[in-house]
Amino acid sequence: MEHDGTNLTVTEAVRSVQLLKIDGYCATAAMEALEFIKSRWNIDGHEWEIRFYPDHWHFFEDEEMLFPFDDKLDHSEWVALKLILVSEPQRDKLRVNLSCRLVCPSQHLDPSQAKTVSHVFNRHSKCSPEVLLMLKHKLPSSGYIVNDSLTVECTITVLGDLDTADEPVPPPSDLRQHLGELLESQDGADVIFHVSGESFAAHKVILAARSLVFKAKFFGGMEETSSEHVVIEDMEAAVFKSMLHFIYTDMAPELDGELEPQAAVIMAQHLLAAADSRYGLNRLKLICECKLSGGIDIGTAATTLALAEQHHCSLLKAKCLEFVTKSPETLDAVLATDGYAHLVASCPLVLTELLRAACERKI
């Protein structure tokens, strides 16, 4: 939260400082990108959950922000934390600050630089942005892992009600809400997509602003420039609907708990393919890649590996190879799936890499 201090009165603030200690830290090496360790606190009459991610993927959306040591990477790996509001908020807005730093219990090492994030929690926003505490590859040599134990000092500050009688504070952006309502109402729509027996109305200018493919299709002299009806082939209606919702709102609720885990994985696979090869939605592709990397199991490993190979997702591919070759039992189980037969038929060249990974792990 930012404010210049004019006409702002903080009536009260409740602060809690606690230590989050992770013993047996070496075991976190087996955790996936979306897996976390949690700890619950009760502060200011609300129940909060601190989530500790030992392998958080932070994706770069701008090519100029690529990891300086390897321009082929599209993300960096961090030790990160998030704050979750578990209970229902007791007022419309909860203004909260989370500050984290690494500490050495023996005090032989000064605490690391504190990293903070502020967030306004309400009924519709119960998760803070992540606190990027330290790059994962720097942690082992930092000195903060002592006897295979890591300690994080977390400070949560909850502000009381604010008095802003003289000058109102602008509310947070509701652009995505209004664009979502525009999509749902179909007001002013100038194109209708026909997908697997269902129809979806949309606005050419919004599609063009979000996708260079749509821009070329509707404003680049192609057949669809003046067309009011477009037929989409080889795509399920539910997938197109989810992609359209993302274009308008920058959100994909189907990937964030709206669907059952298995259905969410399948949706992420279809969305990744559509975002990459058909519509050039790079952010959606990265979101799907991150979702799939945290949900690899026996049943999905081979099909996800094929998808990663076909759509040049090098990091997702590496995660799949790591999973498949982690033990002889896992490898045998994956080889027995229908997904592996699909992998052999569609991406035979990746089998060489799979064999090489298995040899390197000596399984």
From TrEMBL:
<dbReference type="Pfam" id="PF24570">
    <property type="entry name" value="BACK_BPM_SPOP"/>
</dbReference>
<dbReference type="InterPro" id="IPR011333">
    <property type="entry name" value="SKP1/BTB/POZ_sf"/>
</dbReference>
<dbReference type="InterPro" id="IPR056423">
    <property type="entry name" value="BACK_BPM_SPOP"/>
</dbReference>
<comment type="pathway">
    <text>Protein modification; protein ubiquitination.</text>
</comment>
<dbReference type="InterPro" id="IPR002083">
    <property type="entry name" value="MATH/TRAF_dom"/>
</dbReference>
<dbReference type="InterPro" id="IPR008974">
    <property type="entry name" value="TRAF-like"/>
</dbReference>
<dbReference type="InterPro" id="IPR045005">
    <property type="entry name" value="BPM1-6"/>
</dbReference>
<feature type="domain" description="BTB">
    <location>
        <begin position="189"/>
        <end position="250"/>
    </location>
</feature>
<comment type="similarity">
    <text>Belongs to the Tdpoz family.</text>
</comment>
<dbReference type="Pfam" id="PF00651">
    <property type="entry name" value="BTB"/>
</dbReference>
<dbReference type="InterPro" id="IPR000210">
    <property type="entry name" value="BTB/POZ_dom"/>
</dbReference>
<protein>
    <recommendedName>
        <fullName>BTB domain-containing protein</fullName>
    </recommendedName>
</protein>
